[in-house]
Amino acid sequence: MTSPRPHDLRISGGQVVSSFTGERFAADVLVRSDLISGVLPPGTPADAREHLDATGLLIAPGFVDAHMHIESSFLTPQTFAALTLARGTTTVLADPHEIVNVAGAAAMRWMIDAGATTAQTQLWGVPSCVPALEGLEHAGARLTADDIDEMLGWPGVIALGEVMDYRAVVGGDPRMRDVVGVARRRGMILDGHCPNLSGADLSAYLATGVDSDHTKNRTEVVLEKARLGMLMMLQEKCLLPEVAQALLALPQLPPFCLVTDDLAADHILAHGHLDHIARVAVRAGLPAEAVLRALTWNPAQRLRLYDRGVVAPGKRADLVLLRGELAAFDPAVVLAGGRVVARDAVAVAETAGPGTPVAETGALTDTGALTDTGALTDTVHVEPQDADGFRWHTGLPDGTHRFRALRLNPRDTYTEEDALDLPVRDGEVDWEGRATIVRVRNRYGRAGTVFAPLLGRTLTDGALATTYAHDSHNLVTLGTSRAAMAAAAREVVASGGGVAVAHGDRVVASLPLPVGGVMSPAPADETVRRSQAVRDALDAWGWDHLNPFMSVSTLTLAVSPSLKITDRSLVDVVRRAPVGPLADDA
User: Fold this and answer.
1) How many CB atoms lie within 10 A of CB 220?
2) Which of 99, 186, 350, 364 makes an SS bond possible with 525, Cβ 3.0 to 4.6 Å?
3) Any idea what the Cα angle at residue 318 is, between residues 24 and 49, rounded to 5°?
C-alpha cells in the first residue's frame, strides 16, 4: 500500500476561528500545494515537510475585499498587493474605473496583466460608467455596451463594476439598459452604487439585477435595502453605531460585507486595510465574529469564490494568523495559496506568477512592478498653468451676484448646494480675498473650464491641484488665490499628473502620479512618504476631513449627491442635469 505523500506545511498550536459558527477550537491545519489538506485535532499523526508554530494565535481565513479600487491607493497592482497582503487581504475584486476613464480598455488590460503577477488574488469588474455621467463630463475614454460585453469575457473578470449612474438605470436610459443587459446575459455579478435610493426607485434599480450597495445611506435606508435582499457593503464612513445597532436589532442579522472602497497608501501603512475596517466595525458595536464573517465567508460567497472564506479541508490555503483577541484583527502571519507572504504586517515573500522564483522584499517594495506603461503616461494635455488661467470670466453685468456654491462636510463626500454673493467687475468675478474656489479644467485636449465657490472650510492662503478626480480625472484646482492655484497646477502638470499643495504661492508637498495621472510607479515607501506629506500640508492649510483625498477627488463625481462640478458645468446629481453658475438659475 502506497503511503500518502507528506503535506507541505503543518500549522500547529493555534486555534481555528470558524467563520460558519463563530466558534474557536484547537486544531492543526495541514496544507498541500495551495489547498488546505486537513484540519485535525492537535497532534494527529500526519507528515509535513515544514512546520509553522501558531501557538497563541487564531487561525482565520484570508480577508476578501468585495469592492475596492486599486488606483485609490495611488499604487500599481503589484505594489498594492505587497502592501495589503501584509495586512491579511488575500483576495480583492477591483473596479479600475479610474484608470479606464483615462485610457479605456488598454488600461484595464494593463491592470489585469499586472495583477496576475502577484500572490494576491486580484479579480476584476469592468467599469460600467465610462464616463461616469454621459453628456455631462468629458473623460479620456468612452465604453459602449459592446466594449463592455467584450471586456466581460476577459480572463479574471467576474463582475460589472459599480453601476453608479443609478438615476439613468431607474429612468430607463438606453445606454445603461444595454450595459446592464450585456452583463446579465453573461451571468455576471452586478455591483451597485445608489446612495439613499429608496421606495419605488430602489425597486426599479433592484429589478435590473443590480443587488449590492457600498455607499453611505441613512440608517432607515440601510434597513430597507437589507430587507429587500440587497447586499450591504459597509465601508468606514458607513460604520456608525446607529447603523450597527439597527442591524443587530433585526430578528436576524442580514449578510453584509466590509469593504475598503478607497484607501490611500499612507493610510494603509499607518492604520491597515480590511483589518482597519474590521476594527472600526467592532468599535461601532458589531460582534467580532460577525465582523470576521463579513471579511471572509460573506464576500467569498458574493464573488462566487466557493473555494475560500472558511478554514476547512479542500479550501484555498489563504490564511491569516491573528494575535491577541479576535476583535483586534492584528495579523501576525499571512499565507496566500499556502505560502507565507507576510509576518508582523511586513511582506516577506511575493510571487511574480506561477512557477517563478520568490523574491525577498520589504513591506514597501514594489515587487517588480511593470515599467512599460505605454499609453498610460503623458496623458495630461493642458495649456501652461499661470495665474491668468484662474481668472473667472463671466458674461454677467457689473454688480453683486449670488453664485451657486458647493458646501463640504468633514466626514463624507456629499456636497450640498449653497450660495455665495460675489462681485463682478469688467466681466470677471472678483473672488480673491472673498472665497475659496474650485476650477475644473479638461485635461484631454478639449475645451472645458468651470468655476464655483467652495464653502465649509476655513483656509489660509494656498491651493491644491490634482488629476486624481473621480471619475474623469480632469485637472481640478481649488484655492484661495490665483498665484497659489497656478503654482499647484504647474507642479501637477509637470509631473504628468498627481497631487500638489501650495501654501501661499510655494508648493510644499506633491505626489507625482504619472501613470494615467492616478497611480505612481515608484516604490510604495516613496508613495507613502509623499502621500503623508500631502495629507499633512492639507491639514496645515485647514482642510479638515476624515478622508481628505476622497473629499477633494469626489467634488467632480457627478453621480454622488448632491451638487458636483465637471469640466462642462455644475451638476444637480438628483436631477441628473446641468445647472448654471447663479443660485437662481433654473
Assistant:
1) 11
2) 364
3) 90
Number of H helices, E strands in the chain: 15, 31
Q: What is the 3-state secondary structure (H, E, C) of 220-283?
A: HHHHHHHHCCCEEEECHHHCCHHHHHHHHCCCCCCCEEECCECCCHHHHHHHCCHHHHHHHHHH
Cα atoms found within 13 Å of the Cα of residue 227, Cβ hemisphere only: 14
Beta bridge partners of 428: 393, 425
First vs last Cα of the chain: how many Å apart? 85
3-state secondary structure of 510: strand
Q: Write a three-state SS string for 414-464.
A: CEEEEEEEEEEECCEECCCCCCEEEEEECCECCCCEEEEEEECCCCCCEEE
31, containing H or E segment: strand 28-32
**Residues 348, 337: Cα–Cα separation, whole Å:** 15
At a CB cut-off of 8 Å and minimum separation 6, what does 135 contact? none
Which helix (H) or strand (E) element contains residue 553? helix 548-553
Residue 236 phi/psi, 5-degree rounding, is -55, -50
C-alpha grid cell for residue 151?
471586456
Burial of 425 (0-12, 13-18, 19+ CB in 10 A): exposed
Q: Cell 475659496: give the residue.
A: 436
- Count other C-beta atoms under 10 Å from residue 49's C-beta: 11
Per-residue pLDDT of the chain (586 residues; tens, 9 = 90+): 456 789 999 999 999 999 999 999 999 999 999 999 999 999 999 999 999 999 999 999 999 999 999 999 999 999 999 999 999 999 999 999 999 999 999 999 999 999 999 999 999 999 999 999 989 999 999 999 999 999 999 999 999 999 999 999 999 999 999 999 999 999 999 999 999 999 999 999 999 999 999 999 999 999 999 999 999 999 999 999 999 999 999 999 999 999 999 999 999 999 999 999 999 999 999 999 999 999 999 999 999 999 999 999 999 999 999 999 999 999 999 999 999 999 999 998 654 343 332 222 233 333 333 345 666 999 999 999 999 999 999 999 999 999 999 999 887 888 999 999 999 999 999 999 999 999 999 999 999 999 999 999 999 999 999 999 999 999 999 999 999 999 999 999 999 999 999 999 999 999 999 999 999 999 999 999 999 999 999 999 999 888 899 999 999 999 989 999 999 999 999 899 999 999 976 4
Given a contact cutoff of 8 angstroms between Cβ atoms, the answer to whether 110 and 373 are in contact is: yes
- Helix (H), strand (E) at residue 170: helix 166-170
Tell me whether residue 540 is exposed, middle or buried, using C-beta atoms within 10 angstroms of its C-beta: 0 to 12, 13 to 18, 19 or more: middle
Count CB neighbours of 538 within 10 A.
22
Q: Give one DSSP letter per residue of 364-415, joined into a string.
A: T---S-----GGGSS--B-----GGGG--B--PPSEEEEEEEEEP-SSSS-B
Distance CA 499, CA 512 (A): 6
